[in-house]
Every structure is written in C-alpha cells, then in structure tokens.
Amino acid sequence: MVVGPSGPICPLGDAVAELGEGAVQLDDQWAPNELDRQAVRRAFSGREVFAGPEANGHALYSFGAQFVEVSVEPVTRIPRVGRMVGVFGCGRIINPRTARAQLVGGMIWGASHALLEASPIDGAGRFAGADLGAYHFAANADVSDVRVETVEEHDEVINELGAKGVGEIGVLGTAAAVANAVYHATGVRVRETPILLDTLVPDS
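The structure assignment produced for this chain is given below.
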C-alpha cells in the first residue's frame, strides 16, 4: 500500500494505473534484463504461475548443502557451533540481500533446532517450555560465523523468471550437519534433536 493520487493509501497497482506508464519504475535493478516487461510485471503482481515442485519429469526444488564446525568441551560435553557454511541453488535470486538474510537466519534456526530447542510435554499434556524463559533458542553468541553462497542457476522450466523458493531451505540440512560434526568430534551418533548433554556422556 502506498500514498497515491486517489487517496492517502491505495494499492500499488492502482497508483501505477493512475500515474501512468513510466511514472514508477517497476522492475528497477531486480528485473532480469533478458525478460520482457510483461513477464516481469506478471511476476511482481503475483500472477506468475509456478509449476513446482515437479512437472513434466523435472524436479523443481531448491537445493542446498551445509557444512558445520562443532567443538565439544571434553569435560562438560557442551557442543558449540564455531562456523557454518551453506551453498544453495535456488534458481534466479531476485533480491540478493533478502535471500542471504533468509538463508543465514535459516541456518541459525537449524543450529538452534539441533542443540537447544525442545518442546517437552508435562504429565498434564502441556508444553513445559511455554515462555522464552524456558524455551531456549540460538542467539548471536551461539553461532559466531555464518557464510552463505548461492549458485547461479537458470531454471527455464519452473517459471519465466526462473525463481525458486528460498523459504526454509537454509534450515533443512543444518541440524543433520551439526549432528554429523558432533559425531566426528565425539564418536557418538545422535539421531534425535536437540542433542542433549546426557547423550554425549560416554558410558562408564
């Protein structure tokens, strides 16, 4: 919604229609140069048709690979995430800044899911961690270095823009990468999250 000639607040499409062609630069830096303006306008107006996740024998998913460095304190057995690297193929990246922020946030969420986030249920069937004092999640000090790269990809099947969903692709592999790093550090294979301290204590 924007301030437009028809009133203090109106939909962007109405404002553009009243102002006329050229008054608002719709595609700006986000528009792929090789696409015609009509395809770009369909995409940004929400009328672009996405074919996914599978169509005509093509897999139309986004893909990613995550790598995590974990250290485990030998006495307390507390695991800490030192570095995370993620590489993702999500089709054409329309807005690199927001896509990177989404992927970084997703990887931090995945590390949080792996090490901190638990939803235990008490004897009455209620969630025991019902507030932020009891439900722990990762913050800045828990993940010190997160690096994200995107692979240049031109998917001509999914839609005219070649754009795929960024969404939660950053979350999906991170917990497994953390668990694999914990296994490499301790020799303990954990198959449930969160990875609790008592699962990392060696049998005496």
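Interim note for the steering committee: The longest helix spans residues 96-115. The mean pLDDT is 80.
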